[in-house]
């Protein structure tokens, strides 16, 4: 998210851009910078503040960009992949048959928390707003699938309720095994392995069930 303009900032292997500022010239940006910007959760970490050489309308100009967590704008990150976008006005435009978006969220609220004080109320308000935006994107994906504009999509997320899965594999990493709080402390190697394994297992499982042709 580019905070000065309130618009999305897309990093990609072919181009990195913000439609208000332009494309970064020669895509001269490190992967580490993209990761740092993505991890700049507003409450805890400072935004990435730096100048880039942007190219727009055949003109190059150095402009300042202030980048923060992409979830502020759109947490699933699929809006740049949806059909009907014009490369004249949007960056990272591709004609795709399938969309796979892995959600690292916690799943549905269990209703056990009591967001009463100012901090918990603000946190719950932000998460509720983000979830509503995600619901809109998921509705769009279903529409594009039904209308034939894409062949299929899957949205595996780490907080998936295991009982709702259509299949279950041996040695499956369960939700309870990775259900620990986000406290911004260094993660143990075994926890990283569990998270990545669950993400891969969920993706493969849902592909097998909903997109067997792949």
Structure, described:
InterPro entries: Acyl_Trfase/lysoPLipase, PNPLA_dom. Residues 18-78 form the PNPLA domain. It holds the Pfam family Patatin. This is PNPLA domain-containing protein. The chain has helices spanning 31-38, 118-147, 189-210, and strands at 17-18, 22-24, 48-56, 59-67, 98-100, 152-154. The chain has 214 residues and is of the alpha+beta class. It has 2 domains: 17-72, no CATH class; 79-210, no CATH class. Strand 3 (48-56) and strand 4 (59-67) form a beta hairpin. It is globular and about 55 Å long.
What's the short version?
The chain is of the alpha+beta class and 214 residues long. The chain folds into two domains: 17-72, no CATH class; 79-210, no CATH class. It is built from three helices and six strands; from the N terminus they run ββαβββαβα.
Please give the order of strands in the largest beta sheet. Answer: 1-2-3-4
Major sheet summary line = 4 strands, antiparallel
- Indicate the low-confidence ranges by residue numbers: none
End-to-end separation: 32 Å
Count of runs of 4 or more consecutive helical residues: 3
Radius of gyration: 19 Å
Strand content: 5-15%
The tally of structural domains comes to: 2
> How many beta-strand runs?
6
| SSE-based structural type | alpha+beta
Helical residue percent band:
25-40%
Averaging pLDDT over every residue, what do you get? 86
The H/E string reads EEHEEEHEH
Shape field: globular
Keywords: Lipid metabolism
Pfam family, one: Patatin
Domain PNPLA: 18-78
InterPro entries: Acyl_Trfase/lysoPLipase (IPR016035), PNPLA_dom (IPR002641)
């Amino acid at each position: 998210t580019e905070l000065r303009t309130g618009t999305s900032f897309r990093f990609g292997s072919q181009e990195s851009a913000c439609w208000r500022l332009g494309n970064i010239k020669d895509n001269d940006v490190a992967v580490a910078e993209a990761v740092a910007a993505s991890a700049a959760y507003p409450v805890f970490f400072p935004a990435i503040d730096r100048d880039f050489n942007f190219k727009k309308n055949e003109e190059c100009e150095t402009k300042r960009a202030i980048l923060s967590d992409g979830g502020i704008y759109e947490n699933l990150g699929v809006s740049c992949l949806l059909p009907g976008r014009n490369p004249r006005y949007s960056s990272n435009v591709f004609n795709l048959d399938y969309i796979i978006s892995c959600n690292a969220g916690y799943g549905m609220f269990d209703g056990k928390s009591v967001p009463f004080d100012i901090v918990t109320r603000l946190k719950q308000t932000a998460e509720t707003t983000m979830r509503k935006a995600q619901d809109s994107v998921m509705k769009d994906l279903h529409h594009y699938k039904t209308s034939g504009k894409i062949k299929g999509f899957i949205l595996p997320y780490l907080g998936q309720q295991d009982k709702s899965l259509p299949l279950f594999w041996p040695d499956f990493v369960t939700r309870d095994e990775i259900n620990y709080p986000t406290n911004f402390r260094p993660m143990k190697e075994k926890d990283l392995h569990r998270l990545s394994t669950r993400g891969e297992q969920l993706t493969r499982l849902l592909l097998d069930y909903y997109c067997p042709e792949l």
